[in-house]
Amino acid sequence: MKKSLILTLTCFGLLVLNGCSDLTENVLDESSATGLTDKQAADGNLAPVYARLPDIFLHTNYFAIQEISSDEAILPYRGGTDWGDNGIYIALHQHTSTSTDPNIRNTWNLLTQGISRSITALSALPTINDPNVKVYIAEARGMRAYYNMVMLDLFGVVFLKENPQAISDVLRGEAALNYLKAELLAAEPDLLTTVGPGRLTKGGAWGLLARLYLNSAVYRDRYATQFTFKPEDMDKVTEYCDKIINSGQYQLSRDYFSIFNSDNHDNKELIFAVDQRAELNGTNRLAYFSISGDQYPLPAFPAANGTDGPAITPDFYRSWVNAYTADPASADPRFFKQNWTIPADSCITEANFNMNRGILRGQQYGLVRVNGAFVKCGSNFRVGKLFNVSRNRPTLPVTFTEQVNYTVAGSDYNTGYRVLKYEFSRKSTSGRNLGDADIPIVRLADVYLMRAEAKLRKSNDAAGALADVNFVRASRTATTPPPALTSMNLDLLLRERGFELYWEMARRTDQIRFGKYEGTWTEKTDSNPQKRLFPIPQTAIDGASNLPGYLVQNPGY
Comparing C-alpha atoms, which of 12, 26, 24, 15 is closest to residue 107? Predict the structure, then answer.
C-alpha cells in the first residue's frame, strides 16, 4: 500500500523525489551518469531546479490564479464559446473554483515538482567535487524555499523534507513561516551577486525575505478579520529592502516598458526573474494572451495571432482615470507606450513594426491580412484598421471597449481593454515560442513600494512612504514621468502598486494583504474570507488517502 502511495504521488512531486516520467530534463548524479566531468554533474543537478519556473509562470497557471482571481483581470466566454473551458476562468474570477480546477492542479503539480527537484539537487550536490557546489547548494535551498513560499501563499501549506525517500512534513501558519525564513537565511551567505536575475542571488533572497515578512500577518492568521502587522516584521521588511537599495547593484529603469522588453535580461531593475531567453525555450504567451485574434505581432508569422484572452476590469481601469485629471495615457508612462502613428504611417518596414504597449484601448491597427497572408506595399507591410476576420466577424472592428462582463454583449471579441506589457521576441520560429522577455519575480520598484508599505504599517510614516513612492514615479524619465503625489496612505499605496505592477502576478496577494479581496468588482460579489486560499487539488488529496489526516483540504472546499 505504501508503495502504491509513493507511486501515485510521484506525479505531484509531493512525497518522493523523482518527477513524472514525461519530464524532459535529466537529473544527473554520480549513480546515474558516467563519463561526466564534475562541472557537468553539478550543472546537471542545478538546471532542473530552475526548469519548472517558465511552466509555473505560463498564462494559464500562476498568471491566471493571481490575476484573474483579482480586480485586475477578467476572462469571459469570448463570443459565447472561446475560453469557455467549462467555466474555470469565470470561477477563478468569482471565487467559486473547486478542487478539480485544472489550472490550479497544474500550478500545484509544477510547484511540488520544483520542490522535489530542489531536494534532488540538495541530495546529490554534496557528493560532487566541483568548486561551484557550495553556491549551487545555496541556490537549490533558496529555490526550495521559494517554491514553498508560493505554495504557502496559494494553498496555505509548506512541505518540509530533507531525505529524498522520506515523507514530507506538512507545515502551516507560524511553523511554515519560521521554516521559510530559516531556509532563506541559511542560503543567503553562499549566494552570489554576479549571476544575473535568472538565478537566485543575495539580492533575490533579500527580496523574498522582505516579501515574506510583509505578508507574515496574512500567513499567520489567514482568515483574520483584520491582520496584525507586527512592528518587528515591518522592521525586517525595511532591513532587507535597504540591503537591496544600498547594494548599488540595481537601478530603476528610465523607460518603464524596457523592463519587459525582449532584451531585458540585463535590465538593472530586475533582481530575480524567470529566465526566458530564447535559447532556454522561453515563450511569448504572456504577450499574446490578452490581445485580439486579429492582431499579429510579428510580420514573419501570419499564423501567430492573439487569443482574445483576459481584459482589465472596468474597475481597474477607473482607478487610473480617477487618479488623473488628464487621460492616463498622457499622464503616466506606465499606462501606455505608443510605438507608431496610424494611419499616417500606413506602410511600415518589418524592422519598424513594433506594437503599442501597455493598456490598449479603442480602435486597433495592425498588419492587414487577406487569405492568410499579410498585404504588402512593395517590400513593406500594410498597416490599417483591424476587423475580427479570424473570428468570422469581418464587419466587427477590433475596437476594445471599457465595458466587459459575462453578458452576451459584454463578452464579445471586442470587449475590454487589453494588456500588452511583455514584448514579443523576434527570435521566435513560430511567433509563439522562444520568448525572450524575462518575467520579473522581484524588481527594484517593488522593493521601494514594499519599504513604503512597511513604513506606513509600522508607524504611519506617510512622509517616508511618500518619498519612496515618488522616487519610483520620478525615475521614469524616458518620457514625462507621472506627477509626484502629495499624500500617501494604504489605499493610495495599493493603487500605486496596481499602476506599477499590473499584469505581474502580484494583485491577488496584494488585495488579500490590504483587506480588499472580499470586495465587489466587475462580475464578482463573493465575500467569503475562506477563498483567500485555493483548494488543494483533489488528485493530491486522493493520492495521500492512505495516510489519514496527512493532507487536509482547506476550509470552504
Answer: 12
Q: How far apart are CA 204 and CA 266, in angstroms?
A: 15
Contact residues for 530 (Cβ-Cβ < 8 A; gap 6+): 223, 554, 555, 556, 557
| Torsional sign, CA 538, 539, 543, 546 | positive
Q: Which tens digit of pLDDT belongs to each residue from 98-144?
A: 999 999 999 999 999 999 999 999 999 999 999 999 999 999 999 99
pLDDT above 80 for 16: no
Q: Running DSSP on this structure, what letter comes out for residue 189?
A: G
Give 37-72 pLDDT, tens digit per residue.
999 999 999 999 999 999 999 999 999 999 999 999
Q: Residue 278: pLDDT above 80? A: no
Quick one: how far is CA 205 from the chain centroid? 17
Answer yes or no: is pLDDT of 4 > 50: no
Residue 443 gets which letter from DSSP?
Answer: E
Asked if 353 and 300 count as a contact pair (C-beta separation under 8 A), the reply is: no
- Cβ contact 10:3 at 8 Å: no
CA atoms within 13 A on the CB side of 227: 26
Q: Is the pLDDT of residue 34 over 80?
A: no
Q: Which cell goes with 555?
A: 476550509
Spatial separation of the C-alpha atoms in residues 498 and 363, rounded to whole Å = 25
Instruction: Please give the DSSP secondary-structure letter assigned to residue 159.
Output: E
Name residue, grid cell 540538495. 122
Listed in order, strand segments (DSSP E) in 378-422 are: 380-385, 387-388, 393-397, 399-400, 418-420
Report the distance separating Cα 374 and Cα 390, nearest Å.
13
Q: Please tell me the predicted confidence (pLDDT) of residue 15.
A: 36
Question: DSSP character for 283?
Answer: B
**Cα–Cα distances in Å, from 90 out to 74, 86, 95, 532?**
8, 9, 8, 17
Question: SS3 for 153?
Answer: helix
DSSP 8-class letter at 132: T
Q: Is the pLDDT of residue 206 over 80?
A: yes
Handedness of CA 265, 267, 268, 271 (dihedral sign): negative
Contact 467, 484 (CB under 8 A): no
Helix axes 462-474, 444-459, angle to 10 degrees: 170
Contact assessment for residue 214 and residue 453, using Cβ atoms and an 8 Å cutoff: yes
Percent of the chain with pLDDT over 90: 86
Q: Which residues contact 246 (CB under 8 A, 6 or more apart)?
A: none
d(CA 531, CA 557): 9
3-state DSSP of 364-375: CEEECEECCEEC
Distance CA 286, CA 140 (A): 27
Using alpha carbons, select from 208, 446, 416 the residue that is nearest to residue 317: 416
Q: How sure is the predictor about 428, in pLDDT bands with cuts at 50, 70 and 90?
A: confident
Residue 209 backbone zone (phi > 0: left; psi -120 to 50: alpha; other: beta): alpha
